[in-house]
Amino acid sequence: NTPRLVAAQPQPVHASSAPPAGDFIQLRGVCKSYGEQLVVMDNLSLDMRADDRLVIIGPSGSGKSSLLRVLMGLEGIQGGTISFQGQPYIAGGSGCGKPLHEGLRTQIGMVFQHYTLFPHLSVLGNLILAPTKVHGLSKAEASEKARAYLARLGLESKLHAYPSQLSGGQKQRVAIARALMLEPKLMLFDEVTSALDPEMVIEVQNVMLQLAEQKMAMIIVTHDMHFARHIATRVVFCAGGKVIEQGPPEQIFTQPKEARTREFLEKVL
Ligand code: ADP
Ligand code: MG
């Protein structure tokens, strides 16, 4: 067989700002507003790959927390669709935000700015609550697992402590451990170090960097641009309900293309 001559295929031209395709998370035309006036997602589309660590930056009030809460199934969207791991996950008009697929929701873990540990439960109690109630693990199995996670995060000695006996940084690390107990495929972090004293910021960021090394998919909202640059595979700048610009951290932080990104970075850097 003589090889047939094939006309050279034209190379696709990628604008460097073209979002990388990714089917781990896909938002398509997502619309969300509060009341009649306040639009927080305006026909928003966003892609994420399973090996991405997206850092979302943007002005206060630009809808970053809303986006994470939607992904967590805590709030609905009015329009558009969200798929997760290639499956339909959330659809517009879902009102309260109940995901189409509860099994997918439990594969997402979230940590908030203000510690959300149950104050009346010990660290161990906090960690084993969902695994025993939701995932049907026995108390012994869940406790074993809790010990292992706490050891990884350097918190073994706090197993029987109550949240009020922990520092802010320890509470956030316990909150991360509690989310990891359910073996999420995706972790969401909403300004988890914003309320911490500086020396505790590092211990929490180190845990997140550890997760990054283990290739955990993460969406991180932070105002710490130094950390953003360090941990992100991609930085997404959102404002006015839209993705204004996204790209690798070096590009966004040193050569932002959009005037709005530059203005924002000048204020926060
Ligand atoms: P960000 O995290 O970027 O600061 P948020 O998602 O928290 O932004 O909020 C976006 C906008 O929506 C803000 O103006 C906020 O006041 C408003 N908002 C957030 N949650 C609600 C809610 N449950 N009801 C009404 N307005 C809300
Ligand atoms: Mg917020």
UniProtKB/TrEMBL annotation:
The keyword Mitochondrion does not apply. Residues 25-265 form the ABC transporter domain. Its main location: membrane. Transmembrane segments: none annotated. GO terms for cellular component: plasma membrane. The keyword Membrane applies. InterPro entries: AAA+_ATPase, ABC_ATPase_HisP-typ, ABC_transporter-like_ATP-bd, ABC_transporter-like_CS, MetN_ABC_transporter-like, P-loop_NTPase. This is Amino acid ABC transporter ATP-binding protein, PAAT family. It comes from the Bacteria.
